[in-house]
Design brief:
Number of helices: 7
Strand content: under 5%
Structural class: mainly alpha
Distance between the termini: 38 Å
CATH topology of the largest domain: AhpD-like
Helix content: over 70%
């Protein structure tokens, strides 16, 4: 349970509403999956301490932008980035940087998602 508790503390700080919503959405089909998300990505990886939450969220935004098919998760992490202390400019610049590697369509879609969260 230690990883779970550690993950919940991190989620409480940067993704409280998103996690509760996800937990509720998965309740009827895969109730254990929300716990797994709290334990592994947050309780094990985000808690490592080498990178701060701000950096981790910008990296996650970059990765989700390049995927091009994870808009709900991208929006959640944009919100988390703000909660972690990222500025609008840092978030937008991260997405623009990804246009070089993921292409303009992926970056445009991510910028539209960012606008919906940041405005």
């Amino acid at each position: 349970m230690e990883r779970y508790e550690r993950g919940l503390k991190i989620l409480d700080r940067i993704h409280r509403d998103s996690y509760e919503k996800l937990k509720k959405e998965l309740e009827s089909i895969a109730p254990d999956f929300a716990r797994i998300i709290a334990e592994f990505p947050y309780g094990e990886i985000y808690s490592r301490g080498v990178l701060d939450f701000k950096t981790r969220e910008l990296i996650t935004i970059a990765a989700l932008t390049t995927l091009g098919c994870a808009t709900p998760q991208l929006k959640s992490h944009i919100h988390g980035a703000v909660n972690a202390g990222c500025t609008k400019e840092e978030i937008i610049e991260t997405i623009i940087q990804m246009s070089v590697y993921a292409g303009f369509p992926a970056a445009i879609n991510a910028l539209i998602a960012a606008r919906e969260v940041l405005e």
